[in-house]
Design goal:
CATH topology of the largest domain in chain B: Aconitase, domain 3
Shape of chain B: globular
CATH class of the largest domain in chain B: Alpha Beta
Number of strands of chain B: 19
CATH architecture of chain A: Alpha-Beta Barrel
Helix content of chain A: 25-40%
Structural class of chain B: alpha/beta
CATH architecture of the largest domain in chain B: 2-Layer Sandwich
Oligomer: heterodimer
Number of helices of chain A: 8
Radius of gyration of chain B: 22 Å
Shape of chain A: globular
Distance between the termini of chain B: 60 Å
Distance between the termini of chain A: 41 Å
Number of domains of chain B: 2
Strand order of the largest sheet of chain B: 5-4-3-6-7
Strand order of the largest sheet of chain A: 1-6-7-8
Number of helices of chain B: 17
Number of domains of chain A: 1
CATH superfamily of the largest domain in chain B: Aconitase, domain 3
CATH topology of chain A: Aconitase, domain 4
CATH class of chain A: Alpha Beta
Largest sheet of chain A: 4 strands, antiparallel
Chain lengths: ~210, ~500
């Protein structure tokens, strides 16, 4: 997994409450392997009309935001279905950071597994950044994960993130390596648990 | 080794240490479930948890690819169970699937589970069905278990007193390889439903009332315990519906302390403990409840007697209102973000502010999904439909093949067919539409499912969520309707 330290890039506002993973990646693309290019169909039904023509008014289609690597979203960003492919679609499009007042729980878990930063900023901060981007769309944002700050023009804002997620992103850590180091404890737990909760294993007659 | 284990037990499990020194604090059900699965807690607050059951489906292919890339094996194949549900046809032939992409999805789960020696309830298995219906039905889901699945509606299984939550593909791969998962302990919310639900008000109405009250992110960062006499009065089917939609309020999971209703439900199910083992289990399960005086981070209370039949009008489950209400007016919303949200939802749904909900005509109905396709749900819909005809086309997809057989034994299939509805096979079907059963663009569907997101049931589809009885009421009237007058003089 790639590390995330600091990023300066164009930021696209997506001022939508409860932007769910069905929107980020419509279900009909869930059959696709990642190699098929999920970035192409990110937000497909919002970016394109039913005939496949780009909706000019959709923020991500505006010339200055097309190459955005940061999205500034609304409350409960990424709620809904657990589909991790929604994160693949964002990442493969080029998005490395989403700033929003709150995130869907499973979505933020999936994001950190894939090097996508979910930065939680206060409602009024997000509103201010979106307003600033409305006036100066080409203004790049600088997101610093070490400092937990967002630089927007001459203003600096703080954001929060789960401290463990932050460390994972800063170091590009993989869960598996970490879990491997606890292999003995897992085995000890398993043996102890079998006598403690014998009923927890499935019956074999099913 | 024994001493080491003991020391480890005390050092890494603060609850155990407190208990050992006689300092037991009252615990919530959530605390107890968590403590029973905690292998290790790191200083930074993340815990490694043991997973008792892992359910996989066709969509888990990303995770199996991850195993192949690493050349890894499944750590505990006997604790993993697979179903074919998301992509299986529910109205077309199930052998010789016509769509090659869908056929490939079903074949993939067959191949992946065979390679890793995982039991699969595939298309030819009489136990096949929606994963969140099959787990409880087969006695795989039990009180006190920690259950994960790469599907957000895994929260369903909490209805039996399990700690169950949805995970993403990377986590599915991790669970397959280690039978464990890293988690930070969520905050604890108790939602108490006092009073008694009135006739015509179902578990679906209760959960929509909760989501309308706390919002689609009202429980983000929390695990929920549902409590109160209205919850105790619910059947297991009703509790499954309630916990199923915990995720629609943003919760990590929802759970209910197991009781006699739970034990009766579990007893005799194929994979459940039998004989003395069952009695021993019940003894342990009976302790799975919140102690008096246990501390919750947040409490919510509702009175069931005040809840009316509810429908959603918009594009988020929080857009839910009693059937007697009217579509809201964004102009009367003071918060600009919320006004925008309402405007977007109205525009997508093709509705005008102030329209009475009962004046909204529908084009089709769907009865199915992990939320509301169990036998009790089908009975509730059939009770309204018997002797009546649906004014719109619709599909009934039973939650499992076993539910289908049961319904046919009870003659419910004839009630649906006589009403003009299609009696289909079991699967996720028109809830998510990835098996090809979709609602046409612009069509309005009264649906027993869980998500009214734009495009959820197909591009441009307009979904109104409600209980099975309310869907039946919409079917026979052709518009959103209060089911209660239609129940007068009927046996429920």
């Amino acid at each position: 997994m790639d590390k995330f330290l600091r990023l300066t890039a164009a930021a696209c506002p997506l001022d939508v409450t409860n932007l769910n993973t069905d929107q980020l990646l419509p279900a009909r693309y869930l059959k696709w392997p990642r190699a098929a290019g999920l970035g192409k169909v990110l937000l497909q039904d919002l970016r394109f009309d039913p005939d496949g023509r780009a909706r000019a008014e959709f923020p991500l289609n505006r010339p200055f935001w097309r190459e955005a690597r940061i999205i500034v979203g609304g409350r409960n960003f990424g709620c809904g279905s657990s589909r991790e492919a929604a994160v693949y679609a964002l990442y493969d499009y080029g998005i490395r950071c989403v700033i929003a007042p709150s995130f869907g729980d499973i979505f933020s878990g999936n994001a950190v597994q894939n090097g996508l930063l979910t930065a939680i900023a206060a409602d009024e901060v997000v509103a201010e950044i979106i307003a600033t981007l409305g006036e100066r769309p080409e203004l790049p944002l600088t997101v610093d994960l070490e400092q937990q700050t967002i630089l927007c023009g001459d203003r600096s804002y703080n954001f929060t993130i789960d401290p463990v997620s932050r460390l994972r992103l800063l170091n590009g850590w993989d869960d598996m390596a970490l879990t491997e180091s606890f292999r003995d404890r897992i085995l000890a737990f398993k043996l102890d648990d079998q006598s403690r909760r014998p009923w927890a294993r499935p019956g074999t007659t099913g | 080794m024994a001493t080491n284990n003991f020391l480890y037990y005390l050092t890494f499990r603060p609850e155990a240490m407190a208990a050992f020194f006689g300092m037991t604090q009252p615990q919530t059900l959530i605390d107890k479930l968590w403590a029973a699965h905690e292998i290790v807690r790191r200083q930074d607050g993340e815990s490694l948890l043991w997973v008792d059951r892992h359910y996989v489906h066709e969509g888990s292919f990303h995770a199996f690819s991850r195993l192949t890339e690493r050349g890894a094996m499944v750590a505990e194949p006997n604790l993993t169970f697979a179903v074919a549900d998301h992509y299986v046809p529910t109205r077309a032939p199930r052998t010789n699937i016509g769509n090659p992409e869908i056929a490939r999805m079903v074949r993939q789960v067959e191949e992946n589970t065979a390679r890793h020696h995982i039991k699969l309830f595939g298309l030819d298995d009489p136990r096949q069905g929606i994963v969140h219906v099959v787990g409880p039905e087969q006695g795989l889901t039990l009180p006190g278990l920690l259950i994960v699945c790469g599907d957000s509606h895994t929260s369903t299984h909490g209805a039996l007193g399990a700690y169950a939550f949805g995970i993403g593909a990377s986590e599915v791969a991790h669970v397959l390889m280690t039978q464990t998962i890293w988690q930070r302990k969520p905050k604890r919310m108790r939602i108490t439903i006092d009073g008694r639900a009135t006739p015509g008000v179902a578990a679906k109405d209760i959960v929509l009332a909760i989501i309308a009250k706390i919002g689609a992110d009202g429980a983000t960062g929390y695990a929920i315990e549902f409590a109160g006499i209205a919850i105790r009065a619910l059947s297991i089917e009703g509790r499954l519906t309630l916990c199923n939609m915990s995720i629609e309020a943003g919760a990590r999971c929802g759970t209910i302390a197991p009781d006699a209703t739970t034990f009766d439900y579990v007893k005799g199910r194929p994979f459940a403990p039998k004989g003395p083992a069952f009695d021993q289990a019940v003894e342990a399960w009976s302790r799975l409840n919140s102690d008096n005086g246990a501390d919750f981070d947040h409490e919510v209370r509702l009175d069931a007697s005040e809840i009316m039949p509810i429908v959603t009008w918009g594009t988020s489950p929080q857009h839910a209102l009693p059937i007697e209400a009217s579509v809201p007016d964004p102009a009367r919303e003071l918060d600009p973000a919320r006004a925008n949200d309402l405007r977007d939802a109205l525009s997508y749904m093709g509705l005008r502010p102030g329209t009475k909900l009962t004046n909204i005509a529908i084009d089709r109905v769907f009865i199915g999904s992990c939320t509301n396709a169990r036998i009790e749900d089908l009975r509730a819909a059939a009770a309204v439909l018997v002797g009546r005809v649906s004014k719109v086309p619709g599909l009934v997809s039973p939650g499992s093949s076993a539910v289908k057989r049961q319904a046919e034994q009870e003659g419910l299939d004839r009630v649906f067919r006589d009403a003009g509805l299609e009696w289909g096979e079991s699967g996720c079907s028109m809830c998510v539409g990835i098996n090809g059963d979709i609602v046409a663009p612009g069509e309005r569907c009264a649906s027993t499912t869980n998500r009214n997101f734009s495009g959820r049931q197909g591009p441009g589809a307009r979904t109104h969520l409600m209980s099975p009885a309310m869907v039946a009421a919409a079917a026979v009237t052709g518009h959103l309707a209060d089911v209660r007058p239609l129940l007068v003089g009927r046996k429920l």
